[in-house]
Design a protein that fits this description.
The chain is α+β, with helices and mostly antiparallel strands. It contains twelve helices and 17 strands. The strands form five sheets. Strands 6-14-11-12-8 form a five-stranded mixed sheet. Helix 7 packs across helix 10 and helix 7 packs across helix 11.
């Protein structure tokens, strides 16, 4: 095994499989010895019967440099180094992959794959029906724009369109579709991401990602949320200040994908945390309404509303704790940094 997170390993293996499928790949140095820091370089030796073309080595270096890995990848060609350096490598080498596909990292890590976002979902663009046809704006189909994208799970929108609007300026996507804002001033500071809980239409500032077979929609949504800082680096600002995400860069964005059963388990854990937080929010809204009603009716004065305030405070404290746990678990779960079994036991104990 080597000291590298499964999602980072998946990116490394994806590049190597594409560019040098017929070459033995060894890891050496601190990540082979498990003495590395988070940003330590990954040292790789490419072992083949003859020297690899310089053009290929340069391409590999460019691909690793352009990837979203938080560390550098140093590549050496076995046929271009002396015997003294080879002896150093042999001391602690770990075989990462071989031409037959056999590696020593382990089945758990190798089960994760690095896929481009466009391989995980089909991309669809939205639109706005003509405002000159008011009949298209009288209907029951939620039509999503940036102002509606305040929570992850989306069931309703402020505007609605008629069935006739579908194919006449906008399009319909099914439940389980991920909606991402890709244009607008909001992108200066945030990247709204939602998952639809019913059929919805959407405008041209939003991109729809319809997950492909083998991809759990909620897992993909959480993966995008967990990668939001990296996704925000794809935002370009136009001369007039409008922001947009480069479509090509978005489609090529790498996503670490475990087996479907593990995707669903991760989505279940994170979804349960989110459901509990949302339940507490709704309970507090109900308590607030009850307190106002009691105060307005004169049955209880402001000084007698203590129980309502107490329950609200308890709910807020619990939600804050759960939100902190969610924020800690999210990047670790979607990257494979922590074992799923450990997280499930921990979550079961507190939920």
């Amino acid at each position: 095994m080597v000291d590298i997170r499964p999602d980072h390993l998946a990116i490394v293996q994806g590049i190597l499989k594409t560019e040098v499928p017929d070459v033995d790949v060894w890891v050496f140095g601190s990540r082979a010895r498990w003495t590395s820091a988070e940003t330590s370089d990954l040292d790789i030796a490419l072992v083949s019967p003859r020297a690899l073309p310089t053009k290929l080595l340069n391409r590999l270096r460019d691909l690793f440099e352009a990837s979203y890995l938080p560390f550098s990848v140093d590549i050496v060609d076995w046929n271009r180094i002396d015997e003294e350096f080879r002896a150093v490598i042999r001391e602690d080498r770990v075989v990462l992959s071989t031409p037959s596909g056999d590696g020593t990292y382990g089945t758990e890590a190798s089960a994760w794959k690095a896929l481009k976002l466009e391989d995980c979902a089909d991309f669809l663009s939205g639109g706005t029906p003509s405002k000159n046809r008011p009949e298209l704006w009288v209907g029951t189909i939620p039509w999503v724009s940036a102002k509606d994208m305040k929570r992850l799970r989306l069931r309703e929108a402020e505007d609605h369109v008629a069935t006739e609007a579908i194919g006449n300026g906008t399009r319909l996507v099914p439940a389980g579709t991920i909606l991402m804002l890709v244009r607008g001033m909001t992108l200066h500071k945030d990247l709204p991401i939602c998952i639809t809980e019913t059929e919805m239409a959407f405008n041209q500032d939003v991109k729809a990602l319809v997950p492909r077979p083998g991809i759990e929609p909620l897992f993909l949504a959480y993966s995008l949320l967990g990668n939001k800082p990296a996704l925000l680096t794809l935002v370009d600002s136009a001369s007039h200040g409008t922001c947009r995400i480069n479509s090509g860069a978005l489609q090529s964005f790498p996503i670490a994908v475990p087996p479907l059963s593990e995707q669903r388990a991760i989505a279940r854990i994170l979804g349960t945390l989110a459901d509990k937080i949302e339940l507490n929010r709704r309970m507090n809204e109900t308590l607030e309404a009850m307190a106002r009603l009691c105060s307005a009716s004169g049955r209880q004065g402001p000084g007698n509303l203590g129980p309502f305030a107490l329950f609200q405070a308890l709910n807020r404290d619990e939600s804050n704790t759960l939100a902190t746990l969610r924020d800690i678990l999210l990047p670790k779960l979607i990257s494979g940094e922590i074992r799923l079994e450990t997280t499930e036991r921990f979550a079961a104990a507190i939920l």
